[in-house]
């Protein structure tokens, strides 16, 4: 829910977020007492995955539903930026252009692009994207849902500037109300959405590159919001989709987002527990976004705006992990960004959210890889400020339970503890030939360096319970 205006980027929730952040900061609210480590996303070897990647891409919101990228772009991201994952946008309208008829040629085109990521050893999260419900809700203003699943009941809609205000138009509100069956008129829409996701999961369940499924981008509840939406409507809707996916895919991770309204700026979420019927450890991930209203409103990260955004940092860092702990789920930052590279404080803002992610031990997907000032290339193939900042050394796979990961003064420090059942080395992406030190006994640990992929593999001493590795150029 973002838009560029003369004042910068603003969101529907700016006023709410500003009031909430300012009030909490003024009150000096303490952090949640529960600071237990979050569960982690793991691979088939039991290693903790730290996902660094990009959203691909705004261009996939168009009629064809495919992003602008080529295979060479994927290679460049993996080699030059160290990304190990992608949040890949797909749309309901392209998957199911008519009720019950799936466009498998579209999914084949998606699979072709997924293969490009598989060639680079990257993980793919398929994101069912929507904004303003779908293009039929308001004269082509949105993306996501097909026209046949759009019921506005003849209510009017005028696209607004900034575009995010279009969410409040009568036709758009009614389209959402009918989709969630707030009106009691269209239970078939959620049934079709659920069946559509099952079809997608069945198509990609066997693809080793596909890590999981992001069930809906930035859910919006129509005329029902916050506790009237997340608990009684959104959570059971997610549960139905998860149950359907598990009939065809027992292993891949399912990513569930809180509502965008408020949570994007750090407000508390009332999303409920989504149970995973798969045997063994649940594979459900909480996937909030982070777009602090202060940055959106002012278009900068300096002066008084910076103080306000820092309060929203504190809110998000408190409330989103608290929701993940309540759900007993790992957390992943599915979208973050929102500034042009020439905006005051752009580098500091990016550095601060990167450090926040490291502190929380979570991965992220930057918005987005589209060329331009807020992307990672400038439209001529040159890396932007963000491409350089995101090319940050990190442990992409940790062979145990993570304790700490930090990067400062060209030094990456990674600590972990042994965990039963984990195999394979710890893998670290580092942009240059590394110098490595470990707290393990001399001669009991070893490394290997892949100069083409810039990946350092570390095999720790299995008889040492805890390990700390320091990597420098």
TrEMBL record:
<dbReference type="InterPro" id="IPR041036">
    <property type="entry name" value="GH5_C"/>
</dbReference>
<dbReference type="InterPro" id="IPR017853">
    <property type="entry name" value="GH"/>
</dbReference>
<dbReference type="Pfam" id="PF18564">
    <property type="entry name" value="Glyco_hydro_5_C"/>
</dbReference>
<dbReference type="Pfam" id="PF00150">
    <property type="entry name" value="Cellulase"/>
</dbReference>
<dbReference type="InterPro" id="IPR013780">
    <property type="entry name" value="Glyco_hydro_b"/>
</dbReference>
<protein>
    <recommendedName>
        <fullName>Glycoside hydrolase family 5 protein</fullName>
    </recommendedName>
</protein>
<feature type="domain" description="Glycoside hydrolase family 5 C-terminal">
    <location>
        <begin position="392"/>
        <end position="471"/>
    </location>
</feature>
<dbReference type="InterPro" id="IPR001547">
    <property type="entry name" value="Glyco_hydro_5"/>
</dbReference>
<keyword id="KW-0732">Signal</keyword>
<keyword id="KW-0326">Glycosidase</keyword>
<dbReference type="InterPro" id="IPR052066">
    <property type="entry name" value="Glycosphingolipid_Hydrolases"/>
</dbReference>
<comment type="similarity">
    <text>Belongs to the glycosyl hydrolase 5 (cellulase A) family.</text>
</comment>
<dbReference type="InterPro" id="IPR018087">
    <property type="entry name" value="Glyco_hydro_5_CS"/>
</dbReference>
<feature type="domain" description="Glycoside hydrolase family 5">
    <location>
        <begin position="51"/>
        <end position="371"/>
    </location>
</feature>
<keyword id="KW-0378">Hydrolase</keyword>
<feature type="signal peptide">
    <location>
        <begin position="1"/>
        <end position="33"/>
    </location>
</feature>
